[in-house]
Write a structure and sequence with these properties.
1074 residues; 8-stranded antiparallel β-sheet; 7-stranded antiparallel β-sheet
Length: 1074
Amino acid sequence: MPKRTDINKILIIGSGPIIIGQACEFDYSGTQACKALRKLGYEIVLVNSNPATIMTDPEIADVTYIEPLNVKSLTGIIAKERPDALLPNLGGQSALNLSSELYKEGVLDRYGVKVIGVQIDAIERGEDRIAFKETMNRLGIDMPLSRPAYSVEEAEQIAAELGYPVVIRPAYTMGGTGGGLVYNVEELRTVANRGIAASLVGQILIEESVLGWEELELEVVRDANNRMITVCFIENIDAMGVHTGDSFCAAPMLTISPELQARLQKYAYAVVEAIEVVGGTNVQFAHDPKTDRVVIIEINPRTSRSSALASKATGFPIAMVSTMLAAGLTLDEIPYWRDGTLDKYTPSGDYVVIKFARWAFEKFPGSIDKLGTQMRAVGEVMSIGKNYKEAMQKAIRSLEIGRAGLGFAKDFNKRSLDELLSMLAEPSSERQFIMYEALRKGADIEQLHHLTHIKVWFIQQMKELVLLEEEILKYREGQLPDELLFQAKKDGFSDRYLAMLLNRPETEIRRHRTALGMVEGWEAVPVSGVENASYYFSTYNAPDKTTASDRPKVMILGGGPNRIGQGIEFDYCCVHTAFALRHLGYETVIVNCNPETVSTDYDTSDKLYFEPLTVEDVLSIYDKEKPIGIIVQFGGQTPLNIAGELARAGAKILGTSPETIDLAEDRDRFRHIMDKLGIPMPESGMAVNVEEALVIAGRIGYPLMVRPSYVLGGRGMEVVHDEEMLRQYMAAAVGVTPERPILIDRFLSNAIEAEADAIADGNDAFVPTVMEHIELAGIHSGDSACVIPPISIPAKHVATIVEYTKKIAKELHVIGLMNMQYAIADDRVYVLEANPRASRTVPLVSKVCNISMARIATEIMMADYAGEKYSIGDLTNQKIPHYGVKEAVFPFNMFQEVDPILGPEMRSTGEVLGIADSFGLAYYKAEEATQSPLPSSGTVLISVNDQDKPAALEAAREFAQIGFKIKATGGTHKYLQENGIEAEKIKKLFEGRPNIVDGITNQELNLVINTPSGKRSKSDDSYIRKAAIKYKVPYITTMAAALASAKGIAAYKENHFGEGVLKSLQEYHADIRD
C-alpha cells in the first residue's frame, strides 16, 4: 500500500522536558519520525517544550512550536495550523496522554484532525487498566490477579483479599510514577494515595505480586495489513520487582528456551492485533520458572525506552519504520538488507547487547539507594560484545562512574561475606558490584540466586570472571603470562582495570598487548529499512571484518550516558558538529555508548562506533580510522576527562587545546591570568586538608563556596556558613589530592548571576547574548531559571561581560565554544569560572537568538586546522524582540524522602523554554511547561527566613495587587502586618492544627513560597516543600523566583488570561532584526 494521499500536514507532539522515566529516547524517535515523514513529502508541525533537543531546531520540522504541552496550547496550534493528521505515539507518555485529552475534549473532531499510527481507542485499550484487562480476558492471556481502585479504602480491601505483597500501578503514567510494591497496609496507604494523585484518571490497579519472576520484553511492529514482526527479544537480568528502566538487561534472550520465546511471541501478536496498533509496541511479560506460568504485565502502544534500546541493539530503526507504516506504507514495501523486504525480518546478529542503567543517588542527600517498581535511573548505556562477559564489562566501563571493572568498588572488598549478603537483601544500584565481591569471598551461587532472583547462569558467568581475576592477581608483582592476558581481553577486562590489578601503568599494558598483536577487531551491525547502512562494535573475540576509507575524516566523541549535569544538550552539539562536518566535505566518525540519543542514530555520522568512551576504545578506533583529528569539546566532561591522555598517546585534538581546558580548571593558574587581564574574581584559595581550609576561611570570611576541582554539574559543591560546616565538608570530601584540591571561594551573597556563551577563533570572540539567571548566586546554573535577553542587568554591566568574555577567549586561545559564568555584586562584575567547551546553554542560545553556535564553532575549528582565517567579525549582534525563559525540571517526585531545595549542586534532569513578547508571559509559559503551572488566583502561602523578609514584602505586595489572598507563618505574618500587607496567620506543623500541611492537603493553598532558614532549619520546614510536591501544589524556594512568578501571573491576567500571540519558532526568528 503506497503512502496516504488524503493527508498532507502532520502534527507531531514531543515528550517535553527530560524527566526520570522519559528521557532523550523520545527526542531520538521524534527526530527520526520528522526525517522519515519529510522524505515521504509531508509537511510537519512539531510541538515540544524542550529547548535542549535537536528536534526543536527550526530545520527539523517545517513549523516548530516551543510551547507548553497542554490542551490549551495544542488547541491554539491546531486552530492556527490546521493539520490533517496527528501522530501521537512518538512523544512518550506525555504525547499519548495529551492526544487522548484532545480527543476527549472534541478538539480533533472540531478541526477534522485524523489520528494515525495508534487510534485513540487503542490507547485506551492499552493504557486503561480495566479496558486492558477485559481485552486480555477475551484473548485468554493470563494476567496477575488484580482489581482497580479509585480510593485508598477500596485499595485496602482488595489488597486484603489478594494477600501482601501487592503492586500498585496507576493508570496513564510512565516510569512507574506513583506506583510501588507494598508489603503492609501502612505502605499501601502511602503509595495508593500517591498513585491516585499521579494518575490522569485517578485510577490505580492493585495487583498480585510476581516478585522474583523472570521479566521478558518483546518489541513488536505491525502494519495496516496485520503483518507482524518481532524486532527484538529482551531478557531483563534483574527479576520482576525492579522497574525495567532500572533493570540490567540483555538482547537477545540468553537463558530463555526457544519454546518459551515462541509462546511469548504468539501472545504478543494476539495482543497487538487486538489493540490494532500500527507501528511499534513494547509488550512486557513475567514468567515463573518454577511453574512455567506466563502473565502479561503491560504494553506500551508507542515508541518507548525499550524501543530505542531494541532499535540500537538490532539495527532496526523502530521509530522510522513506525512512522512510515503510520503514513500508509506496509512492511513489504520497505527494504531489508538480508531478505529483500521487512515483512521477512527476523532478529539476527552474532553478538550480545547489554543495557546498564546510570543513577544519580549521590545528587540527592537523604535519598535511599533502593530499586523497586518506580524508576530511579537518569540514563543508560548500551554495549555490544561477542559474548556476555565482554558485553557486560564494556557496559561497566561505559558508565563513567570511575570504575573500569566490577571489582574493588567503594569499600565492598573490605567487607565480610555476611555484610555483603545482607546488602544484597534488597536491590540497589550497587548490586552487581556487591555480588562480585561476595563471589570473591566464596558466596554460593545458589544462595545468591535465592537472594537476588538473578538466574544461576548469569551468576556463573560472573563467578568465572572473579576466578580469572583472582588468577591475574597472583601476578601483581611479576609478569602476567600471555595466555592469561589473551583470556582477560576476550572476557572484556579493560586495559585500565588490568593496570589497576597488576599495579602497572595503563600505557605499559597497552604496549605489551599491541606488541602481541592483541588488538580490537570490529564487526558491523547492518541497518534494516534502508539501503546500505551499518554501525560498528569492537571485540577481542574475532578478527577485524571492516574497512576504513582514506577520505579526510574527523572523529567526534559523544557524551556517554545521560546524567544530571550532563544531558542531551551535549548530544545536540555533537549532532550539529557531524552535520556541519558533512557539509564541509569531511567524513564523520562518532563514538558514543548511549542508546537513547540522536548521535547514535545510524545516519547522523558516516560511521558510528557504539563503544565506551575510554582511552583504550577511542585510541583503537583512532588507529583504525586515522582521522585528521578528534573533536572533544562538544561531549561535556566525558571526552574532556580523556583528552589529555589521548593527546599524550599521539592523537590530534582539534579546536581548543587540552592544555587550555586544564588551565581553566586550575584555579591558581586561571586566577593569575585574570589578575594579568585586570578582571576581578571572588577571593579564593585551594586546600588539601582541613587546616589549610580553615586558614583560607580566616582570610576570606564566611559564607564560602566550596567544591572539588574537575567536576561538571556542581558535584560536591556547597555553601558553607561557619567553621563547623567547613570541618564537616572537609571530613566528608573524598579523593582530594594535591593535584585535585578543594576549591574555596568567597560566596557573593545576593549577587545576580549571569552567563555568556561565546564562539571564538583564537584571536577574537563573538558573544550572541548574555543570559541573566533569575535565582541569585548560590543556585547551580543548570538549576536556575534564566532569561534571554537580560531584564535587570544594566547596559554597562552587559557591555563589561561581553568585553571580559572576549578578552578571556583571546588570552586562553579558545578555538570553538566557551561558556563564562559571572556574578554582579556591589555594582561590579566578577568572573566565577570559564569553561572552554560547549555548555548546556548552547541549544538555548541557538534557539532564542537564531544562531547555530555548534555549526559555526565547527567551521571555525576546521578553518583553524586548515590554516585559514574564519571571519568572526562578520557575526553581528541582533536585537531580539522577544524573551526566552529557561526553567529547570526536577525529579523530586521520584525521591519523596529528599528535601526539594536548590543549591550549588545540580539536581535538575531537564529543562523547558517559554518564549513570548514580554518577560512576564515568557516566565509564566515556562512554569506552565514544567507541568506545574502558576495559579491565576487563590491563596499564596509565604513562609520565609529573616534575610528574605524584605524581598518577601515586595513579592507579597505584587500578589496582593493581583488579587491573591495571603497566608503567612508567625514571623513572616508579623513582618507583613507591620508593613501594611493584609495576611492571615497559618500554623506550622508543631504549632497545632489546622496547619500548613492541612492547608496543602485540603487544596486551600494554591502556591507555596518557602525559603529554608539557613543551615539550622534545612530540615525543620522541609515538610512544607515535601507536602507541596506530594499534592502537586506549585512551590518556590527562592525570593527571586517568587517575584518573577508574581510578575508572570500579572502579565497573564493583563493579557486577558491568554499567553499573547501564538507564534512558531520560525516566526520568532523572522522578527529578529540587525
